[in-house]
Amino acid sequence: MTTHRKLKIYSDKSFLLPGQRHAQILFPFWGVVQKPWIGPQLPRYNKWSEVGGQWFEMTSLEDCDLAVVPAEDGNWSAMKEGALRFVEQAYQAGKPCVLFFIGDSAEPLEVPHCHIFRTSLERTKTHPGEYAIPAWSEDFVSEYWDAMLPVREKNARPVVGFCGQPGPFRLIQRVKLLPRRLVHSALSLFGPSDKKRGIQQRRLEEGSFPGLDPSHIRAMACRALLKSDRVTANFQFGNGYFDLRCVEKQMRARQDLLANIRESDYILCARGQGNFSYRLYETLCSGRIPVFINTDCVLPFQDRLDWKSFCVWVEADEVKNIGQIIADFHSALTPEAFITLQETCRKVWVEWLSPEGFFQKFSEWFVEKK
Q1: I want to staple 335 with a disulfide (CB 3.0 to 4.6 A). Which of 38, 154, 182, 349 is the partner?
Q2: For 241, which DSSP code?
């Protein structure tokens, strides 16, 4: 049996603001933060909190291998002061430090002497020491499908699924965006300085699509797939967002998503407000093949995982040909390879992208760096 050395980590609750949540890496030691989730997302960190002690050990600053910024807020203005003080403390002690930033914003954080793991990044603007972290939902297979992967047989025509909010999909929705774009442009040119700063920040958060709902790339893909005669589009469009206040609505939305995934061969995965896709990780978790639209994204372990080997990879400027790209990918697979690829997708999620898989690989990476 292979043995491994636990990574010794240090953190300090005194750097947290009242009510501020702590980072997921600390859940095995400080408990799982449940708020604001009240519905199906609740179990997503249960296993991680139970097994995390296999790879990590809490210790003092003097004895640690790695210092962990305690807060994980998704709001940099709320995190900044405490995070910078903590990082400076670690730097003065000669310890490497890591910060987790889970949120839609791709704003530059500019934290010296620190490894930064975040969900939303743009590859061409990524600074050294910044890395991608997965977005986590509950494990669909274990929570809903009795731990049995629902493998699909290959048919001649690929079925591409999507369940959710497509963004500015219809013409009237795109027309409604025009006033906002005009206001943004006018304020950028003629507005007071505080308004200009606000527009600049909004553009940072929107990534490569200033003045538009960033999910417009998802709407473009949906339109192209509906027009394609090479694929079957299995789409179920929603009319809103995940409601944090109502468990019944959350469960209904979750069941719709689960049914859509089970009944599809491939799942459309494109950015939303942040430059990352929750659906990408839910798709892999479910043993389905992602159709990933690359909008200058950074993906977890991209120097160690060959993402293009288990995804249908579509660059943002190729979206108009997405149906043909999927059809060509599908026709190149034998029936046996199609089944194997589904199993590979699930395996990649379990071993690399689930909370347990990610933090195990994270621990091993830092141990190797020592």
Answers
A1: 154
A2: -
Q: Which of 13-17, 21-25, 336-340, 366-370 has the lowest mean pLDDT?
A: 366-370
Radius of gyration of the chain (CA): 21
pLDDT in tens, 187-215: 555 555 544 444 444 443 443 444 446 67
User: What are the φ and ψ backbone dihedral angles of 350, each rounded to 5 degrees?
Assistant: -60, -45
Look up residue 230 and give its two tokens. 């090479």
The DSSP output letter for 294 is: E
> Which pair of tokens denotes residue 10?
């240090």
Closest CA to 93 of 131, 61, 119: 61
**In the beta sheet, which residues pair with residue 267?**
161, 290
Across 313-321, average pLDDT: 97
Query: What is the DSSP track for 333-347?
Result: S-HHHHHHHHHHHHH
Give the Cβ contact number of residue 178 at 10 Å. Answer: 10
The angle that helices 216-227 and 322-331 make with each other, rounded to 10 degrees, is 60
Strand order through the sheet with 130-132: 56-58, 7-10, 66-68, 97-101, 115-118, 130-132
